[in-house]
Amino acid sequence: MKIGLNIKSHGLSIDAHVKCPSMGCAGQVSFIVDTGSPRSLLSSEDGKRLGIETSGLNRSHVPIWGIGGSAIGWDLPEVILFFDTDQGLEFFHKGDMIIYKNPVRRKKGREITPPLVSLLGRDFLKDTEFKLIVNMRKDEAYLEK
Question: pTM score, two decimals?
Answer without folding.
Answer: 0.88
